[in-house]
């Protein structure tokens, strides 16, 4: 798809840095899917959503004066289908991110800034290698019309498209990247 736009790299790094800053400030302990009871689910939801807000806030500071830019936020299929058992806090937060995309698109669109999101389904990553069972993954693939897991490249290509000028008239969209399982 060509060269990675500088702003796409900037947004990715800002997201990571804001998440790290939040975790450092609150001493929130996350070990895979196990979350320390000491902090509770409210802090987990706040952390996931707050990091999106912090990224947007920092990014808009440079985009507003230029009257242009593109923001791509990360949601999840769970934000649309409710996620798996025991992950309601995650699903609710990712649903909130999808709503944030639409709201921000209306707010900053008049400034020439586009806001979109991606909502990946099962993507073959180290997370799933560690925390998902082979049978669970196979079951998910069997329910997916394309009969495979997504790849990190599938997600990256979609993010690059949304951040590029090729998507210059696309805003307020959350693209589901799930091989068709989400429709």
What's the name of the CATH homologous superfamily? NAD(P)-binding Rossmann-like Domain
Q: What's the arrangement of strands in the largest beta sheet?
A: 3-4-5
Number of helices: 7
Number-wise, the strands total 5
Rg over alpha carbons? 17 Å
Mean pLDDT: 78
**Helix proportion range:** 40-55%
Predict the CATH topology. Answer: Rossmann fold
- Biggest sheet overview: 3 strands, parallel
- What's the CATH class, please? Alpha Beta
Low-confidence stretches: 1-39
Query: Can you tell me the number of structural domains?
Result: 1
CATH architecture, please? Answer: 3-Layer(aba) Sandwich
Distance between the termini: 26 Å
The helix-and-strand class reads alpha/beta
How is the secondary structure organized here?
Blueprint: H1 6-26, E1 30-31, E2 34-35, H2 40-66, E3 69-74, H3 78-81, H4 88-108, E4 113-120, H5 126-131, H6 134-142, H7 152-163, E5 174-177
Model description:
With about 180 residues, the chain is of the alpha/beta class. It has one domain: 3-Layer(aba) Sandwich (Rossmann fold). The chain is about 55% helix and about 10% strand. It is built from seven helices and five strands; from the N terminus they run αββαβααβαααβ. Strands 3-4-5 form a three-stranded parallel beta sheet, with helices on both faces. Strands 1-2 form a two-stranded antiparallel ribbon. Strand 1 and strand 2 form a beta hairpin. Helix 1 runs antiparallel to helix 2 and helix 2 runs parallel beside helix 4.
